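pasting for the record
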Amino acid sequence: MSKRILILVEGQTEERFVKDVLAPDFYHFDTFFDPRLLITKVVKHGASFKGGVTTYGKYKNDVRRLLAEAKGTALVTTLIDYYGLPADFPGMETRPNSSPQDRVLHVEKSIFADCGSPQNFRPFLALHEFESWLFSSREELSQTMTQPEKAPLIAAIRDAFETPEDINEDPATAPSKRIQEVFPEYKKTLHGPLAAGRIGIAAIRGECAHFDEWVSELEIFATAFR
C-alpha cells in the first residue's frame, strides 16, 4: 500500500525541490510527498507571492492542521530554513553554545515536544538554509547558471567550511547571500531547484549530515511494515 508524507514547506523553492528532486527518490518505495506552502501574505501567486515563517504560532497552526489531516497514518514533516527562524520558536533562546548541528537539533527537539511529540511528526530545519545544499557540488551551480568559469569561486566558499551546512547564518554571509554575490542574476525559485536536481539527492546526503539524517528518517517511514 502506498504511503504519504505531508510536508510543510517555507516557499515555492522548497515546494519545487520536494516535487522535482526529493519525491522521485521515493517513488520506488511507493511513497508520495504532498508539499503544503506556509503562507504569510494574502497574495499567494505571482511576483507578489511570499512564503516564509513570521511567527511560531502560524507554523504550529499549520502543523496541527496537517497532523489532523494525516490521522496518524501519514508522516508529517517540515522543510523550513533554520537561518532567519523567528526568535519565538521553542528552543531558540536556550540553544547550546556549540556546533550548528547541536543547535539546530536542539530547536527541532523543542518544536517536537511543544507540539505534543506525535509519533508521526518529524520537524526538520534546513541548516542553515536551502542554498547551503547547493554547495554540495563545486561545479553544478555554475553549470546551472551557464557560467562555468565561476566554479572556482563557489569551490573557494565551499572549501572554507568543513561541510556546506556549516556555511554560516550571518545576514551578510549566509549561503544565499554568498551565491548572489557570485551570481547577481540568481533566482531562488528558478535556479535553486534546478541546481539541486543537477547535484542530486545522493551527493547532497554525502555532504550534508543533517539533511542525510532527515532523509534517512523519511526512508524508515517509507519502508516500515512493507
